[in-house]
Amino acid sequence: MKRHLLLLLSLLFVSAIAVGCSEGNAETTGSNSSTGSEEGEEPKEVYIFHPKVEIADQLEAMAAEFEEEYTDIDIRLEALGGGADYRPALKAKFSSGEEPDIFINGGFTELELWKEHLADLSDEPWVEHVLPIGKEPMTDSEGKLYGMPINLEGYGIVYNKKLFEEAGITEKPTTLSELKEAAQKLENSGITAFAAGYGEYWIPGEHLINVPFAKQDDSASFIQGLNEGTTSIVGNESFEQFKEYIDIELAYANDNPLTTDYNTQVTLFASGETAMLAGQGNWTEAMIYEIDPEMDMSFLSIPLSDEADEDLLPVGVPNNWAVNKNSENVEAAKTFLNWMVSSETGQQYITEQFKFIPAFDNIEPTGIGALGESILEYSKAGKTIPWTFYKFPSGASHEFGSTIQSYAAGNIDYETVLEQFQATWDSLKE
Amino acid sequence: MSYKKSTFIVELIGIAIAILFLVPFYFVLVNSVKSFPEILVNAASFPNKVLFSNFSKVWGLINFPKAFLNSLLVTVTSIVGIVVISSMAAWKLVRTPNKLSQILFIIFVSSMVIPFQTVMIPLLKLSGTLGLINSIHGIVIMYFGFGVSLSLFLFHGFIKTVPTEIEEAARIDGCSEFGVFWRIVFPILKPITATVIILNTLWIWNDYLLPLLVLQNPDLRTIPLATSALFAQYQKQWDMGLAALVLGIVPIIAFFLFLQKHIIKGVQAGSIK
Amino acid sequence: METKLKQKELHTHVKTKFFMSADKKVKIKKVLSYTAFVAPAALFFIMIQIIPFLMGVYYSFTSWNGVSSAVEWIGLENYKTIFTGDPEFYNSFMFTAKFMLVSVLLTNVIGFGLALLLNEALKTRNILRTVFFMPNVIGGLLLGFIWQFIFTKGFASVGNLTDIPFFKLPWLGNEQTAFWGIVIVFCWQMSGYMMVIFIAALQGIDNSLLEAAKMDGAKGWTLLTKIIIPLILPSFTICLFLTISMAFKIYDLNISLTGGGPFNSTQSIAINIYQEAFHNNNYGLGTAKSILFFIAVSAFTTFQVMLTKKREVEA
């Protein structure tokens, strides 16, 4: 009996190695096209590595339609999920020589990091249709474009219209005092005002802190000034005002904001336990509708003062497709990207299947929900401010997040907060 | 031995601790048959409606049979290799007590404290050149390299307690070194071999990062890789994810139930003096 | 014993007499068999662990960012940075050391306790053994997510029901509860693992020895400390070493349970290194940290192994 087991195991062992060897080759024979493209020429493979698991299936379906039109190109998609980090995995792939042909880049700081690997896309046919805001992250100092914006996203404070009515709030709050007043009214009628998710570093460390950065008269030159040492966070007006907003949010928030993670935060709002969802954007839509399909909601801005021009939403490009310059199939990769945003099928997928807010002026947004609509309204009215956190030094948002957590826990006062922000920037800048 | 009152009390204590240990599993099981909104809103309670459809859905969604076979292949081949090479090396190192053996042993063991993340990039650089990427045999070889430290360490500790007389006797009888090891020594190692198998199985079966970096071909996906697709950066599909988790751990628990007997009764059989 | 020794002497004596001329041959044969047994393990080990590690050592002297093809040699600069300007690294080192001490102690005590418990003639022995071991079957990240949920939601609802202050603490929300939260989960998971090793050792004890000791009147505590523990000291060496290296390397659990927070108070060294190498894009600095860490941990564990080894010999 035991002998047999051992024999079986060693057989398995040997066969595994054999299988492993042949497996690698099996793939290149191509399997998808039933239309008969086997005319000797091997299809070019475009390998796409992305973190968008939420649309992985739809992307596969879209790729299949593309392959039907272009029988000489094979699309191989790989999605990274499981809460694992995309960026380290991407670095590891490049180290192993299994370089993806198309991958994701956040732009700005990350563009600089990866630029030597990226193909110049400035001359692509789709470039003229990209909205100005969509070009910004992937444009380098010489004006060359290295990426295609995947979509637009925006965030602010999502509010539950029904609960606002119940509390007797008739006017949409746009300034700091109005927001505080609304929160007080909600509390008076027994409703928790804010769902605050300080358990995730990126909610305070990217989304919230972005507001004082973006509300500088010229945020780009403010950030450049920080890098050169000519401007400063300590003593800056917007950063001083930022305290007020944080204080209001925390004063009227759910219990234990420091242990509230993304899922809990969104659930608090979606299940009607709180009237507002702070620092979150249109990406929460799907999850909210899943819990409450009837939710009637829209965006408020994150105000810093009582000035009239506070009603602005941060809108930006979360990620961009970038093409590997050293790929054998640069042209095929470019063909695919172009098809995705210019063909009717591709455009349909972007709006109806992925439910993206397109960053192109020639794609009509359809199939987006209330939050997406709200973002579009703000964008059309020009009431937007930029996303600056992709311009932060690498690793800074983690530190910003931890500083704000510390403040929320009551460990440090606000003066120290500003000093720590400044110290973080100074120590992490290049 | 008779069943005494004191034993009964010990038994009760044991059961109480066991219940404490099982609490997290309650959450996993209960939520694996709930709908997604129900998990988020009401995670601690019993399900309103038991949805076994989570299991059937996830079965097809992640192509469970395929992932299961891949996991099995990777785990079994890695374990067989690890057990063979590390038990052999451990035995020789213990039985040849010289400077070289000592140094080798220390190097083997101290490598256990290297965090994987720090060798990740160079390892992939190297394996790219060696052609270990994107194949089952490639990842198996990596598991050999990583698994050998702990296994050798465990075997080493055990072999030290095994008396040498039987080996000597076998040698006098004309047994070759391989014969001595495989016929005499290896059977005695059974309890520790079972331990090594269990510990390595757990690690390899659940490992996520290494397969992620090495197995890019979707056809080679292991269970953790297939499951991970259910957990996006923002949206985590807990309903599917927990059902997949249950599917993934059932084989491991069954395997442990099967092997634990060997840890226990093994030594009595082997303790010929 | 004595007769055996004599036998052995005799045996070697005979051997040397017979094969005096073939002394060299024997030596070659010995070397060959040593190689045959050790080389396969060593080969895979060197290829997969040692070479990448040495490559890492090289990177620790560079300012490589992990992406660029240009790798610039900067000598000891990274090491200087760690010692002069990195309070975060120091903090995470202190956290890891503190965590290691507490959790290693608890895990081994609980694990050994469970093993002793299951060494009794219990009716539910097999089931209990499986149950205690089960926490190991859920791997890394998922485990943290599940526990996060238990701490933040489960504990809170138990607290509301029973009014026990323990459950009403802000679990994971401040430095203390986050620290103990990680300790609890680590012990929950690892004590079953240690239990398996202790059980294997307890099973290895010669029953006649125990019977003899019992006849001599040894009972309970004395039996445990004077007979059982000395007999299985090697397994303590193993378990201590394992828990120490695991506690030092802790990564998945922190990431998924607390994310290193709140405010970086539970940032383990592994997380710090990972952040430095991959998020701050200072791969060179990250590896320099990991090498220092490696040296510290190996020094510590070697010391620990030597210490327990000594006691093993004395026993």
TrEMBL record, chain A:
<comment type="similarity">
    <text>Belongs to the bacterial solute-binding protein 1 family.</text>
</comment>
<dbReference type="InterPro" id="IPR050490">
    <property type="entry name" value="Bact_solute-bd_prot1"/>
</dbReference>
<feature type="signal peptide">
    <location>
        <begin position="1"/>
        <end position="18"/>
    </location>
</feature>
<dbReference type="Pfam" id="PF01547">
    <property type="entry name" value="SBP_bac_1"/>
</dbReference>
<dbReference type="InterPro" id="IPR006061">
    <property type="entry name" value="SBP_1_CS"/>
</dbReference>
<protein>
    <submittedName>
        <fullName>Raffinose/stachyose/melibiose transport system substrate-binding protein</fullName>
    </submittedName>
</protein>
<feature type="compositionally biased region" description="Low complexity">
    <location>
        <begin position="27"/>
        <end position="37"/>
    </location>
</feature>
<feature type="region of interest" description="Disordered">
    <location>
        <begin position="24"/>
        <end position="43"/>
    </location>
</feature>
<keyword id="KW-0813">Transport</keyword>
<dbReference type="InterPro" id="IPR006059">
    <property type="entry name" value="SBP"/>
</dbReference>
<keyword id="KW-0732">Signal</keyword>
From TrEMBL, chain B:
<keyword id="KW-0472">Membrane</keyword>
<comment type="similarity">
    <text>Belongs to the binding-protein-dependent transport system permease family.</text>
</comment>
<keyword id="KW-0812">Transmembrane</keyword>
<dbReference type="Pfam" id="PF00528">
    <property type="entry name" value="BPD_transp_1"/>
</dbReference>
<keyword id="KW-1133">Transmembrane helix</keyword>
<feature type="transmembrane region" description="Helical">
    <location>
        <begin position="180"/>
        <end position="205"/>
    </location>
</feature>
<feature type="transmembrane region" description="Helical">
    <location>
        <begin position="240"/>
        <end position="259"/>
    </location>
</feature>
<dbReference type="InterPro" id="IPR035906">
    <property type="entry name" value="MetI-like_sf"/>
</dbReference>
<dbReference type="InterPro" id="IPR000515">
    <property type="entry name" value="MetI-like"/>
</dbReference>
<feature type="domain" description="ABC transmembrane type-1">
    <location>
        <begin position="68"/>
        <end position="259"/>
    </location>
</feature>
<keyword id="KW-1003">Cell membrane</keyword>
<feature type="transmembrane region" description="Helical">
    <location>
        <begin position="136"/>
        <end position="159"/>
    </location>
</feature>
<feature type="transmembrane region" description="Helical">
    <location>
        <begin position="67"/>
        <end position="91"/>
    </location>
</feature>
<keyword id="KW-0813">Transport</keyword>
<feature type="transmembrane region" description="Helical">
    <location>
        <begin position="7"/>
        <end position="29"/>
    </location>
</feature>
Automatic annotation (TrEMBL), chain C:
<keyword id="KW-1133">Transmembrane helix</keyword>
<feature type="transmembrane region" description="Helical">
    <location>
        <begin position="130"/>
        <end position="150"/>
    </location>
</feature>
<feature type="transmembrane region" description="Helical">
    <location>
        <begin position="99"/>
        <end position="118"/>
    </location>
</feature>
<keyword id="KW-0813">Transport</keyword>
<dbReference type="Pfam" id="PF00528">
    <property type="entry name" value="BPD_transp_1"/>
</dbReference>
<feature type="transmembrane region" description="Helical">
    <location>
        <begin position="178"/>
        <end position="202"/>
    </location>
</feature>
<dbReference type="InterPro" id="IPR035906">
    <property type="entry name" value="MetI-like_sf"/>
</dbReference>
<feature type="domain" description="ABC transmembrane type-1">
    <location>
        <begin position="93"/>
        <end position="304"/>
    </location>
</feature>
<comment type="similarity">
    <text>Belongs to the binding-protein-dependent transport system permease family.</text>
</comment>
<dbReference type="InterPro" id="IPR000515">
    <property type="entry name" value="MetI-like"/>
</dbReference>
<dbReference type="InterPro" id="IPR051393">
    <property type="entry name" value="ABC_transporter_permease"/>
</dbReference>
<feature type="transmembrane region" description="Helical">
    <location>
        <begin position="31"/>
        <end position="59"/>
    </location>
</feature>
<feature type="transmembrane region" description="Helical">
    <location>
        <begin position="223"/>
        <end position="248"/>
    </location>
</feature>
<keyword id="KW-1003">Cell membrane</keyword>
<keyword id="KW-0812">Transmembrane</keyword>
